[in-house]
Design brief:
By secondary structure, the protein is of the alpha+beta class. It has one domain. 24% of the residues lie in helices and 32% in strands. Strands 1-2-5-4-3 form a five-stranded antiparallel beta sheet, with no helix packed on it. The longest helix is centred in the N-terminal third of the chain and has 22 residues. The protein is globular, with a radius of gyration of 14 Å. It starts with a helix and ends in a 12-residue tail after the last strand.
Amino acid sequence: MATIKKRAKAKVISGALALAKQVGKFPSHKMWLDYDAEADVLYISLRRPQRATRTVDLDKHGILLRYRDDEMVGITVLDASRRSGGPHVK
């Protein structure tokens, strides 16, 4: 049982580090994270409130980019807990 918890903790740390490496590429350095465990969806808000007017679906990646006019205001990550940090979307 302890091995499973260590693996889970290592996965969480790895995911957090992968996200931290990408923060510098975001259009905003202030953000809010919300995770819905039941739906396994991570919401990254770059503006509060988002009030998105347009969503771009990155096919096959399970990532939705949310825009208000031409400004990115959020990112939605589907199946968030099953991601390993790669491959990266360019």
